[in-house]
Design goal:
Mean pLDDT: 88
Strand content: 35-45%
Strand order of the largest sheet: 2-1-6-5-4-3
Number of helices: 4
Helix content: 40-55%
Low-confidence stretches: 23-28
Distance between the termini: 63 Å
CATH topology: Nuclear Transport Factor 2, Chain: A
CATH architecture: Roll
CATH class: Alpha Beta
Radius of gyration: 23 Å
Structural class: alpha+beta
Number of domains: 1
Largest sheet: 6 strands, mixed
Number of strands: 6
């Protein structure tokens, strides 16, 4: 009887160890993927920000999927990113030509990621300084969907939801 009980305890212990190690391994693997993906995304957003600073319109456009959608909570509308690019292009040209300075920073308050997809929620702060030194800031709540294609992150959807305050911006940092 004692040997049967010992056998059952051993089997239970081995099963428990197996299950714990399997779940721990899966969790650690998922955490490692998320960490790597978030580092890649941070680099993506830094490069996108740098393209704004440098007025590099083509580099900025390259961060979007060709069929990307812009959702605007301001105009209560959605449309092709190509329409947004048409509106934004002059600002890039003015920046590149030294007529103004531009800067954008992104802060993320929530990220759901996998190896090749990302859903991010946060804010962006777009700042411009004109030739006279007058600076204007625009802060908005933002949600993005990205996909990784051929090793490159691309924005599929950008939802500029609503205006954010400076206080909200500071709290999200």
């Amino acid at each position: 009887m004692f040997n049967v009980l010992t056998s059952k305890l051993k089997a239970l212990l081995l099963t428990t160890i197996f299950l714990v190690s399997t779940f721990t391994s899966a969790f650690l693997s998922t955490a490692a993927i998320a960490s790597t993906t978030e580092q890649e995304l941070d680099q993506f957003w830094q490069a996108l920000s740098q393209s704004v600073i440098n007025g590099e319109f083509e580099q900025y456009k390259a961060g979007y999927h060709e069929d990307a959608i812009l959702v605007s909570g301001f105009s209560k509308n959605s449309y092709s990113i190509k329409q947004a690019f048409a509106r934004w292009q002059q600002g890039f040209a003015d920046t590149k030509n030294g007529k103004m300075k531009a800067h954008v920073k992104f802060v993320w308050t929530q990220r759901f990621v996998s190896e090749n997809t990302a859903h991010e929620t946060g804010m962006f702060k777009y700042s411009t300084t004109d030739e006279n030194g007058k600076t204007e800031d625009f802060i908005a709540h933002l949600t993005t969907l990205l996909v990784k294609k051929d090793g490159k992150w691309l924005i599929m959807m950008e939802n500029q939801k609503s205006k954010a305050t400076e206080e909200e911006w500071k709290m999200a940092q």
